[in-house]
């Protein structure tokens, strides 16, 4: 995919940890995508409610006000949002969190802490899924 095509793709990122949000944003931008950030789940929900033009989304599982899994559940019930693939990330060590994430409709799951290379690879996988998913609107 050309860099100009990537630059036109937007990724919604929500994490209540400013350091993680900054790190993931930096990786997304370095990969050639535009990052739209939210400080928590409620802000991500508000953004999605107004704007569905995202190629992918990356949410922390545990956030104040609205958790990442709940945002994914909402997205999977909205026709205009269901085509957006979602990566959920968490520092939670409970294996049920991963199962719950996939049951909610997450496309990929990433455990914190993660290496930059692993996030890059997972992001590429997520975006390749986005080009394969076509839901009629």
Explain what you see.
The protein is built from 6 helices and 5 strands; from the N terminus they run αβαβαβαβαβα. The longest helix has 17 residues. With 137 residues, the chain is of the alpha/beta class. The protein has a 5-stranded parallel β-sheet with strand order 2-1-3-4-5, sandwiched between helices.
What labels would you give this structure?
137 residues; 46% helix; disordered C terminus; single chain; 6 helices; five-stranded parallel beta sheet; Rossmann fold; globular; alpha/beta
List the helices and strands and how they pair.
Layout: H1 3-7, E1 10-14, H2 18-30, E2 34-38, H3 41-50, E3 56-60, H4 68-75, E4 86-90, H5 95-104, E5 108-111, H6 116-132
Parallel strand pairs: 1-2, 1-3, 3-4, 4-5
Shape summary: globular
Total number of domains: 1
SSE pattern: HEHEHEHEHEH
Q: Determine the CATH topology.
A: Rossmann fold
Question: Largest sheet, order of strands side by side?
Answer: 2-1-3-4-5
* Alpha-carbon Rg, integer: 14 Å
**What's the rounded overall pLDDT mean?**
90
For the biggest sheet, the summary is: 5 strands, parallel
Structural class determined from secondary elements: alpha/beta
**How much strand?**
15-25%
Helix count, DSSP H or I runs of 4 or more residues: 6
CATH 4th-level superfamily: Response regulator
């Amino acid at each position: 995919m050309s860099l100009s095509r990537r630059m036109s793709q937007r990724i919604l990122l929500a994490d209540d940890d400013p350091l993680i949000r900054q790190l993931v944003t930096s990786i997304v931008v370095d990969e050639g995508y535009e990052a739209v950030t939210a400080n928590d789940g409620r802000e991500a929900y508000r953004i999605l409610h107004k704007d569905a033009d995202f190629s992918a989304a990356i949410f922390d599982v545990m956030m104040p006000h609205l958790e990442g899994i709940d945002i994914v559940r909402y997205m999977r019930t909205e026709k205009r949002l269901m085509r957006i693939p979602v990566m959920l990330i968490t520092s939670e060590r409970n294996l049920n969190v991963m199962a719950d994430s996939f049951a909610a409709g997450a496309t990929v799951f990433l455990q914190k802490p993660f290496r930059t290379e692993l996030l890059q690879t997972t992001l590429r996988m997520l975006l390749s899924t986005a080009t394969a998913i076509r839901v009629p609107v």
